[in-house]
Design goal:
Blueprint: E1 3-9, H1 17-29, E2 33-37, H2 56-67, E3 70-74, H3 84-94, E4 106-113, H4 120-132, E5 136-137, E6 144-146, H5 160-190
Parallel strand pairs: 1-2, 1-3, 3-4, 4-5, 4-6
Bound molecules: flavin mononucleotide.
């Protein structure tokens, strides 16, 4: 059985390092997972005026979150935090009140920046936000990538060390999904 994964990439430029990182990880996950990359840039800006009767794309987004067995966030760092487009998506998934679609989903976070900080600040912020929404974010392995030299002209990953890191990350991520599914079943049996 392939796990259904809802994926969000916070870099929306044509040459996004994070989209390249996502594509490189995808190769390690594709045997076990079906990856659904949602175009978060197409979501409108969140407004409480819209949340009770939102545009169709919001319903589609929340439905795809609900159907997923796990989440994957690949984020750049903007001014020591996550880009607004990703926060906007997280906010949509959390609303309206009482309809937080993220809760209890296992998730992985990783990211690439053009500098040595490697999205550490962004990922810590995202962990804080997702924690408040009840998302079960994987603790280890972590990937904070300086992606400035990791990819070739065609966007392909050319750094062997990073290739190894992504393999380990993929193994850890699959185990995290399995562990969460097992504990959910056990909790259901107890209740
Ligand atoms: C508004 C803005 C703020 C940024 N702030 C940071 C930062 O705090 N830390 C960092 O390492 N890089 C920062 N960068 C550089 C990004 O790491 C770099 O643009 C990266 O390529 C963005 O990811 P992407 O290619 O997936 O869009 C910033 C870039 C922009 C446009």
């Amino acid at each position: 059985m392939a796990y259904q994964i809802l994926c969000m990439v916070g870099g929306i430029s044509r040459n996004s390092l994070n989209l390249k990182l996502f594509r490189a990880l995808e190769g390690n996950l594709s045997e076990r997972c079906s990856l659904d990359l949602f175009p978060i840039q197409d979501l409108p800006f969140f407004s409480q005026d819209l949340e009770m009767d939102p545009p169709a794309i919001v319903g589609d987004f929340k439905e795809r979150i609900e159907k997923s067995q796990a989440l994957l966030f690949v984020t750049p760092e903007y001014n020591r935090s996550i880009p607004g487009v990703l926060k906007n998506a997280v906010d949509w998934g959390s609303r309206p009140a009482g309809k937080n679609t993220w809760a209890r989903k296992p998730a992985g976070i990783l990211g690439a920046s053009a500098g040595n900080i490697g999205t550490f600040g962004a990922q810590q912020h995202l962990r804080q936000v997702l924690g408040a929404l009840g998302v079960r974010v994987m603790l280890q392995p972590e990937i904070y990538l300086n992606g400035s030299k990791a990819f070739g002209d065609q966007g392909q990953l050319i750094d062997d060390y990073v290739k190894g890191m992504l393999q380990k990350y993929a193994q850890g991520y699959i185990s995290w999904i399995q562990e969460n599914m097992r504990t959910s079943v056990e909790a259901a049996h107890r209740s």
